């Protein structure tokens, strides 16, 4: 049996595919449109990554900075498609030594609020008192 070499001759097991008609959802200049949109949104600034929701792949941030120590974490000031859960508070004790004393100084609580994807409600990070977003459950991609 001779196999067809031309893609127009290939027939699927279920249905015949008409390759003479362009696919309905195909746009040959979509990549250029997307690149122009990103350039307009980022205004030419470079970012360590573009962040997406790990569950639904919705874009969450176009301009962020990677954490120096924890390379899978990012921080950002400006985000899209994010929702802060103002009804929940997360606290972290932070010990800061007093000047001239050992590390048995005073403790202060740092308050965070959970941040979720506004499309699918997946928790993607936290929002701190200084109005900085800290992302730890995201998909980064090179920008």
Helix-strand blueprint:
Blueprint: H1 30-42, E1 50-52, E2 59-61, E3 65-66, E4 74-76, E5 82-84, E6 90-96, E7 106-117, E8 123-128, E9 133-135, E10 139-141
Antiparallel strand pairs: 1-2, 1-10, 3-4, 4-9, 5-7, 6-7, 7-8, 8-9
CATH topology of the domain at 56-143: Metal Binding Protein, Guanine Nucleotide Exchange Factor, Chain A
Determine the number of helices (DSSP H or I, runs of at least 4 residues).
Answer: 1
Beta strand %: 25-35%
Write the CATH architecture name of the domain at 56-143.
Beta Complex
**Regions with pLDDT < 50 over 5+ consecutive residues?**
none
Question: Mean pLDDT across all residues, rounded?
Answer: 80
Helix and strand element order: HEEEEEEEEEE
Largest sheet: 7 strands, antiparallel
